[in-house]
Amino acid sequence: MSIETPLRSEQETTVQRKPMLEVQDLVVRYGHGRKTAAAPAAVDGVSFTIQSGETVGLVGESGSGKSTIGKAILGLQKISGGSVGFQGEDITHTTSGKRRAIGSELRAVFQDPNSSLNPRKTIGASLAEPLRVRGISAAAARTKAEDMLERVGLPREAVDRYPSQFSGGQRQRISVARALICEPKLVVCDEAVSALDLSTQAQVLNLLADLRDERGLSYLFIAHDISVVQFLAQRVVVLYRGQVMESGPAAAVTENPKHPFTQALVAASPVPRPAEQAERRAVREALGVRTASAVAAGPGGCPFRQRCPLATELCATERPALRRMGEADVACHHA
Amino acid sequence: MIPTLPATTPAIQRKAALTKLSRHRLLASPAGLAGTLWLAAMITASLTAPWWLPFQTEDQDFTAVLSGPTATHWLGTDELGRDILSRIFASAAETLGTSFIAVVVGVGLGTLLALAAASSQRGEGVISRVTEVMMSLPGTVIILAVIGAVGTNIPLIMAILGVLISAGIYRVMLGQAKSLQNQLYVDAAKVDGLGPLAISARHVLPGLATTIVVQSALIFAVGLLIQAGLAFIGFGPPLPQPSWGGMIQSASQHVYDAPWLMVPTGVVLALTVLSANAIGNALGKGPNDTASHLPSAAIRRKRAGQAVAAAAAAPAVGNPPAAGKLSVRGLSVGVDGGTPLVTDVSFDVEPGIVLGLVGESGCGKTMTALSLMGLLPSGVAVTGGQILWNGKNLAAATDKDMESIRGRDVALISQEPMRALDPMFTVGYQLTSAIRRLRSMGKAAASAEALSLLEKVGIVDAKRILKTYPHQISGGMAQRVAIALALSGRPRLLVADEPTTALDVTVQAEILSLLRSLVKDTGMSVVMVTHDLGVVADICDQVAVMYAGQVVENGATASILDDPRHPYTLALLAADPHANSGHDMPERLATIKGQVPQPKDWPGGCRFAARCQFAGSACLVPVPLLPTGTGVGLVRCVKADELATEGLAWVATDVPSDLSPELGVPAEVPARHRLDIIEKDMA
Fold first, then answer.
1. Hey, is B627 helix, strand or coil?
2. How distant, in Å, are the alpha carbons of A275, B217, B356, B491 from that of B520?
3. CB 3.0–4.6 Å: which of A219, B241, B265, B634 could bond B247 by disulfide?
4. Residues β-bridged to residue B496
């Protein structure tokens, strides 16, 4: 099973080149030793690609496997099946030694600004770490850290301070600075703005967009909030219990969702306009999607079938393959 | 609040941070201070012993055998006329030194094993099995066997003791090392390509420092006692070399004819062991161990007194409100030290109405909500104003009054449903006991009521859920149970503190629908704290927008969200990515420069002025909450009507590269203040 990359006309020329990131039939099972094979898959046959300069959003609820995919790409989670290719190189099972080589090009921004920086180290020490690992002198690393802090809108003096002296939004900017300090090609943002307030969230989202435009970065933007994903991503991949439900251009998926789960997800995301929200609520209630606390579907078939208003017997026996519907790919027998 | 450090070099700062942590706790507790002083004195005295001791350990004074304290022999003499003081301190260096061997070996080995186990799952399996075997070995027998084989080599015995103890240290350290290993900054370091060794050394070991120090102090005491015990049974240093255990042993033979002999050595040994334990205790106790989220009885009594006084000072309200009506008048909440957190907040909630308190973190919305319940955290109290519920001022109510109101009249749902549920009891037990307590029902009636409550909150298989424990149900289900628990006393007012923030959006939509239908069915009112304007649009009839401890805009939800008058509300809506979708999504979101100011930095004038695009000289004086020009709702902005007539919108601004406006304070303020953490919630 694989997703055809929906191509926009201006990207036609880049098709010939190797994609920035290519995830093929990724399977991740938790546990270790013999128990792994028997464990249910947290990520179950997920494929997608990210082209150079493109932002792809991974969206899904808790337990959808979106963060696990990010961890697998970063080498923080053992991969049980499938492959991950980065700039044409297979990095499915790289060791920490080889990670160091690609680590400057493949970076990450994590969710929690409170724990993504070591509280016992100065900002300068945290920012310099990726550079020091690569043999850059302490003085040069410090200058680079100061430049990068200035770029994300913080004073240069911040290098000598500790994370506790900064607010959540400022700490998240420092995390962005840490990810970008060694000029990466691809940044995995795992719920990078979820813990922030509206105004600081907007600041960090704008910063990420500015840096992307300035440096031609690719992002894998992982979030539970489809509106936030849509702001930054050109393409969106919607996950449910470790499987891709729908993928396609961000505007098409959010404005005209085809899969019953994507429809439910979009309709449940509240908008700050009372009249429009009342309409959304009516749409959501009309969808007839069953409660999330319904019993989890067993293996085989469609993972969403217990909650799905369209489910038939076919959905219990056969896992729906992704098929092209309009601009998007949808994994549903009945959509 | 986090103290700011003066600007210094990193090395000095690191040192200062380390010593600050340990020294603070040590000196804060009298036992810790006494222990440190005693141990420091012992170490100094034993190291300098050769220069000041009045006698050699072997010097015998046959004129004073078994004497008590005299001018010549300050602590008396033993059965051979040897000076006790000299013997205690001559042997102290070795005793303390060899105990330290046990500390270094035991804590060192235990820490290394824990670091190794935490960094590799396979390693953990092997190391844990080995340490289990080590812990099952009979330590005393092994030590005696070693003495039998190699003689009384005290340093070697202490090293072996260290190895035996290391298994226990490993157990203590492992959990902590594993949780540090799971921190996101460790993940970030792995992405950098750092190997497991470098991660253990740079990111995990520093986090174990406190535990290492505490364990070292305890092991040191154990080493002292074991040495004394061995010497007592004859396995001390070879005679006539003095040792504490040996001296106690010889004193025990003269316990009838010279009881004093036991005192000096016994006291020194006991005090040294106690000191080591006291230091360990002082260091191990976290600074917040005694603080809980509920205030202590004494503080609450004091607070009740203050509140009564404050309420008495407040002007009387003309018409007592109707039943089921909440009316908050000029409410102020502050830290006991005097810093205000909420000032002059007023709003009304009619029966059957949902009021939203909305704003960013640090705006005082949670403090306002908790004050309605009388559940403000320790050290925070209502400092003025009235909370009128059915004509009764809750701000002046005593603890006892609040107990009869809480749960029955006013109930709370919190952000974390799991915190409302006790993991030790089944859902059914918790629900029925709440119903029995609040409604004085019999057991059978309460069980039936619990079942119907669960059905009322939309749980389909209520019978099964009654028998489950909280950890067996999902977050959404737990929030439904928490709502059922809140409903068990048939409250007329529900305070909901971010009830859907921790939930998935599809579950959030279900919980909001549930709350809406409960309000419709029961006619209760809800005060809903949230940061999500979409949630406000969905469920709230009225909304009070809060900023920096004040209500800045208050009125009907439809008028405020569709036609906001306060620049802060305008800006929040412009910064919200949910306001747009599909092809309407802007290239950049509007931002508000800087961040919510800390309570101590609130300006005298409009508190939003420093971040406002429209601010002018008129904004430097305090602004009252006044009716808008159209008469719909209240707004706290001198320019509100002007902005409305000119149809001004909050314009999108880029992330400023200019530093001072970014940090929300004027450029002339020293950098140290600019970096103050601002949005740290007092809760």
1. strand
2. 19, 62, 17, 14
3. B265
4. B413, B528
Flag whether pLDDT at B2 surpasses 50: no
Report CB contact under 8 Å: A62, B504. yes
| CATH 3.40.50.300 placement within chain A | 9-105+184-330
Instruction: Identify residue B137 by its one-letter amino acid code.
Output: L
**A283 lies within 8 A of chain B by CB:** no
The whole-angstrom distance between A133's CA and the closest CA on chain B is 7
Which token pair is B600? 């101590």
Tokens of B37: 């002083």
From B434, B456, B490, give the residue that closes a domain.
Answer: B490
**Structural domains counted in chain B:** 3
pLDDT tens-digit profile of A276-321? 999 999 999 998 888 776 666 677 889 999 889 999 999 999 999 9
User: Does the pLDDT of residue A246 top 90, yes or no?
Assistant: yes
A272 touches chain B (CB under 8 A): yes
**Chain A, chain B: beta-carbon pairs less than 8 Å apart:** 268
Q: Is A229 helix (H, G, I), strand (E, B) or coil?
A: helix
Mutation site, A84, A198, A236, A239, interface B, largest B CB count within 10 A: A198
The CATH number for B87's domain is: 1.10.3720.10
Say yes or no: A1 contacts chain B, CB-CB below 8 A.
Answer: no
Q: Which of B490, B509, B536 is the last residue of a domain?
A: B490
Instruction: Give me the residues of B, 360-379, that contact A with CB < 8 A.
Output: 360-361
* Selected residues 113-172 of chain B with any CB under 8 Å from a CB in chain A: 121-122
**Residue B512, in any domain of the structure:** no
Flag if B577 and A272 touch (Cβ within 8 Å).
no
Interface of B with A in 205-264 (CB under 8 A): 206-207
User: Domain span at residue B201?
Assistant: 17-44+74-284
Tokens 């334990």 sit on residue = B277
Mean pLDDT within B397-419: 85
For residue B156, give both structure tokens.
Answer: 């070697």
Per-chain mean pLDDT for chain B: 83
pLDDT of residue A7: 43
Which residues in A lie closer than 8 A to residue B662 (C-beta atoms)? 153-154
Q: Are residues B478 and B619 located together in one domain of the fold?
A: no
Taking the Cβ of residue B651 and every Cβ of chain A, the question of whether any pair is shorter than 8 Å is answered with no
> Is A77 within 8 Å of A67 (Cβ atoms)?
no
**Domain at A9-105+184-330: CATH code:** 3.40.50.300
Q: Are residues B91 and B225 in the same domain?
A: yes
Complex-level ipTM = 0.87
Consecutive H or E run containing A56: strand A55-59
Instruction: Pick A197's closest partner by Cβ from B121, B459, B679.
Output: B679
CB-count burial class (<10 Å; 0-12, 13-18, 19+) for A83? middle
Q: What pLDDT is recorded for position A48?
A: 96
Co-location of B435 and B564 in the same domain = no
Residue B629's closest CA among B615, B617, B612, B645?
A: B645
Instruction: Give the single-character DSSP code of B492.
Output: S
Q: Supply the DSSP symbol for B553.
A: E
pLDDT single digits (tens) B79-102: 888 999 999 998 898 899 999 999
Residue A240 forms contact with B (CB below 8 Å): no
Written as one string, the DSSP assignment of B313-331 is HSPPPSSPPPTT-EEEEEE
Answer yes or no: do B441 and B572 share one domain: no
- B262-270, Cβ contacts within 8 angstroms, sequence gap of 24 or more: B264/B75, B264/B76, B264/B84, B264/B85, B264/B88, B265/B84, B265/B88, B268/B42, B268/B88, B268/B92, B268/B244, B269/B224, B269/B225, B269/B228, B269/B244
Measured CA to CA, the distance from residue A266 to residue A257 in angstroms comes to 8
Q: Do residue B471 and residue B613 come from a single domain?
A: no
Would residue B549 count as lying in a domain?
no
Query: Is B222 among the domain residues?
Result: yes
Please state the pTM of the whole predicted model.
Answer: 0.80
